[in-house]
Write a structure and sequence with these properties.
The protein is mainly β and about 120 residues long. It has no helices and eleven strands. It has strands at about 5, 10-15, 20-25, 35-40, 45-50, 55-60, 65-70, 75-80, 90-100, 105-110, 110-115.
């Protein structure tokens, strides 16, 4: 059974910072592409940042230069450092693990709320 558990969300003022963590149980972390998605009320769930097993990274345009994704395979943990936060970053942030070759899998975390006040 694989579980992804996010932490680190909260309330912060605009311009502030937060660091999200996603701890993965099971043995899939080192072979998974890991990503952060976010979903604001009334909106679709959108990709924020992704990091592959080889360390290739891509970001949504809206967070480039402000957010940094990283992974620690020894700790089975994914991170998202969020700086210069804006009210439009307010959303539930979800951790996502996937693999598109055998063994195939897709797992979601339960989400953590990030609220940025103006």
């Amino acid at each position: 059974q694989v579980q992804l558990v996010e932490s680190g969300g909260g309330l912060v003022q605009a311009g502030g910072s937060l660091r999200l963590s996603c701890a993965a149980s099971g043995s899939i972390f080192s072979i998974a592409t890991m990503a952060w998605f976010r979903q604001a009320p009334g909106n679709e769930r959108d990709l924020v940042a992704q990091i592959t097993t080889g360390g290739s990274i891509n970001y949504a345009e809206s967070v480039k230069g402000r957010f940094t994704i990283s992974r620690d395979n020894a700790k089975n943990t994914l991170y998202l450092q969020m700086n210069n936060l804006k009210p439009e970053d307010t959303a539930v942030y979800y951790c996502f693990a996937s693999r598109i070759m055998s063994p195939f899998f897709r797992y979601w975390g339960q989400g953590t709320q990030v609220t940025v006040s103006s």
